[in-house]
Design a protein that fits this description.
By secondary structure, the chain is mainly α. The protein is built from 19 helices and six strands. The strands form three sheets. The chain has a two-stranded antiparallel ribbon with strand order 1-2. A two-stranded parallel sheet has the order 3-4. Helix 4 packs across helix 5 and helix 7 runs antiparallel to helix 10. It starts with 17 loop residues before the first helix and ends in a 9-residue tail after the last helix.
């Protein structure tokens, strides 16, 4: 790296050592910010023109060059050179190559410190929406399955033990709720990201470009950053982004774990489509849930990216420190990981088949209707403490007879308690148990249909946000 191709070096007598240049270089990962660097450079040139630091003719020539470079980069025709230290160096070199020495004027009034964080924010505001589009498609696939099975019975589990029967639609739709919260987190996060650091300079602000609000608005931000020192050192937005990505990973991992269990021979409640399964190189009969297993595995990678950045940020002094160069790779990796994972996961969910008959048969096993006895007694003005005790004795009797609690006869039940009259048999059915849970968030078919309808309405609103990119295109 020689001094002629750097954005600094006037006070240095020696060229940078090759080992130092290799350590310092970042174009191998920050080149994906090139289009955003061009966009903010275009806005910055106009801002310099507004304060007459670049004349109209020069502005026109530089902006024309920027547009040409943008097309070349988009077509893959322009790439950084080995001597380029970072994306900012490469872009300035390309502009100067086209317009000559006047290209050197674009550096006035800004620093790589505010450039880097501005590029990063522009990238992330677009990335978050692209990820949310995929999350919404997954939610739609989940809700479609839930709608198809809103009144089908399923075992409900706590501690991975049979608990109470639920509807399969209820069981499936719970995952959409978690993922929609992730989309909402991105919308909430975007409010805090919506401040423009360009104009913060190295740390003290700009003495040349004063109209920071105009610059912010031209780049799609609603306002400039409040404090120039904070602006160049803040990476909260990157940490928050990685947190949301890691939480998406956790939610996918939990869903994946259920899919792995439900599709196992031992459960046999669901089957994966061949398109989203793999086989064994040695056992011909195997059909492995690799899409789910990879989702479960990649969640660790997403959490690791968050942890790595947080450790990097811990204890950094204000304002900019070169440690912050380490912010981009974990973010890019999390973006790429989710964009690779989500389409396959959505396809897996969309094409899953469920064994409704087996699910219904198993929904009442494990004495899962015992709570119905307790609720029956409560309605007869028995305290839940006593009702729970009586219900437990009914389970004990059923176990001694090696039958399920709902299979006890009216005589059996009355032998446990005189409060258990013949009409208790009416509540000891699967359909009665499901229908009784008609609360707002409950598992009754009518409640589940309403839940799916409400979350679909929410998804429709969020989809508009996800498909509106605030980052302007270079025009």
């Amino acid at each position: 790296m020689n001094n002629s191709n750097k954005l600094w070096g006037g006070r240095f007598e020696k060229d940078t050592a090759s080992s130092m240049a290799n350590l310092s270089k970042s174009t191998h990962f920050d080149w994906r910010l090139a289009i955003f660097d061009l966009l903010q450079t275009d806005v910055h040139v106009q801002a310099l023109n507004k304060v007459k630091l670049i004349n109209d003719a020069e502005t026109k020539e530089i902006r024309k060059a920027i547009k040409e470079i943008n097309k070349e980069i988009s077509a893959g025709q322009s790439l950084p050179e080995n001597s380029d230290e970072d994306v900012h160096t490469a872009i300035e070199r390309m502009i100067i190559a086209k317009v000559g020495d006047i290209g050197g004027k674009i550096r006035a009034g800004r620093s790589r410190n505010d450039q880097a964080v501005t590029d990063f924010k522009l990238f992330l505001r677009g990335s978050s929406r692209i990820i949310c589009q995929e999350l919404i498609e997954l939610c739609k696939a989940i809700n479609e399955q839930a709608q198809n099975h809103y009144d089908k019975a399923s075992p409900g589990f706590t501690h991975l033990q049979h608990a109470q029967p639920v509807t399969l639609g209820h069981e499936l739709a719970k995952h959409a709720q978690a993922l929609v919260r992730d989309v909402e987190r991105f919308t909430d996060w975007d409010v805090r990201v919506d401040t423009c650091p360009l104009g913060a300079g190295a740390l003290a602000g700009s003495a040349l470009v004063i109209d920071s609000m105009w610059v912010a608005n031209q780049l799609g931000f609603s306002r400039p950053s409040e404090n120039s020192i904070d602006a160049v050192s803040d990476r909260d937005f990157a940490a928050e982004y990685l947190f949301i990505c890691s939480l998406v990973g956790i939610h996918l991992s939990k869903f994946a774990e259920e899919i792995i269990l439900l599709t196992s021979t031992e459960f046999g409640y669901a089957t994966l489509d061949d398109q989203y399964s793999t086989g064994s190189s040695i056992m011909p009969q195997k059909k492995n849930p690799d899409a789910a297993e990879l989702a479960r595995g990649k969640s660790g990678r997403l959490v690791g990216n968050l942890t790595g950045l947080l450790v990097t940020l811990k204890g950094l002094p204000f304002a900019y420190n070169r440690d912050l160069q380490e912010d981009k790779e974990p973010v890019f990796d999390s973006h790429d990981t989710l964009m690779l994972l989500l389409p396959a996961f959505t396809g897996m969910v969309k094409t899953m088949k469920f064994d409704s008959k087996k699910l219904e048969e198993n929904a009442v096993t494990g004495h899962s209707l015992a709570t119905e006895i307790a609720d029956y007694l409560v309605k007869k003005d028995i305290s839940f403490k006593d009702a729970h005790e009586i219900s437990g004795k009914c389970v004990k009797l059923a176990e001694s007879k090696k039958i399920e609690v709902h299979e006890l006869s009216a005589t059996d039940l009355k032998s446990v308690s005189n409060y258990l009259e013949d009409d208790v048999l009416k509540v000891l059915t699967l359909q009665a148990a499901l229908g009784a849970r008609s609360s707002y968030s409950g598992t009754s078919p009518s409640s589940v249909k309403n839940q799916i309808s409400r979350i679909n309405e929410k998804i429709s609103v969020l989809n508009k946000w996800a498909n509106h990119n605030p980052v302007p295109e270079l025009s």
